[in-house]
Amino acid sequence: MDNNWDIAINALSNINVFSHPNNDPVTIRGITDELKCIGVGTDAAVFQHIAAPGYAFKVYAYDKRDKINVEAHVYETLGDSTFFPTCFASTDKYLVLSYEKGLTLFDCILQGIHIPKTVIDDVEEARAYIRSKGLNPRDIHLKNIILQNGKAKIIDVSEYALPGNDLRWEHLKKGYEQYYHLIDGNSVPLWLVETIRRWYNQQRKSSFSYDDFTKAILKLFHLT
């Protein structure tokens, strides 16, 4: 890949990203015609430049920029791996990453696109690799995994330097193994997926029972 990502510098200087309380997605001000927003998170937004489509620019909210060096260090520690994007550079405002084609597993659920078991196996292998590098594989969920030619690409490594197991992947893997066959090949409405996501995040703040949660979800699908 040509190292021409600096062509985006001027356009990126016009972008400002703002975070919000309660873990809500960031908002963006100052969009230009040269940039396309391809992702929005709670700390940052990701852009692609029309003249440098091979790169993804992860622009952090002003009050979250202390995380840039942390994430850059995680990428450096992970090194060259097929499981993750490449980090080409970091500034005081954004990271320069390789653009990864494909749909997230979240989009696959919405569109009824089959998620093969190879993806689950890849994430398991990636998690073992992360641990082998002295990092902690957490915050792995449907929006952070891309289906790429039948394989998994994990696109957000920002929390791997944090302690603790958030159990997100364990719950997703268990749900895939037990219930995915019930919806495989069928598109699921966005409102329903978002409702499930909100319920999950709310219940995780208190006492959480995976079995009780899945029973409630099955009722939504009229499967019990």
What is the radius of gyration? 18 Å
Structural class: alpha+beta
The shape is globular
Give the number of DSSP strands.
Answer: 10
Q: Output mean pLDDT.
A: 92
Helical content stands at 25-40%
CATH hierarchy class name of the largest domain: Mainly Alpha
Write down the secondary-structure element order: HEEEEEHEEEHHEEHHH
Structural account:
- This protein is α+β, with helices and mostly antiparallel strands.
- The protein has 2 domains: 5-98, Phosphorylase Kinase, domain 1; 103-220, Transferase(Phosphotransferase), domain 1, CATH 1.10.510.
- 35% of the residues lie in helices and 21% in strands.
- The protein has 7 helices and 10 strands.
- It has a 5-stranded antiparallel beta sheet, covered by helices on one side.
- Strand 3 (35-40) and strand 4 form a beta hairpin.
Brief summary of the model shown:
This protein is α+β, with helices and mostly antiparallel strands and 224 residues long. 35% of the residues lie in helices and 21% in strands. It folds into two domains: 5-98, Phosphorylase Kinase, domain 1 (2-Layer Sandwich); 103-220, Orthogonal Bundle (Transferase(Phosphotransferase), domain 1).
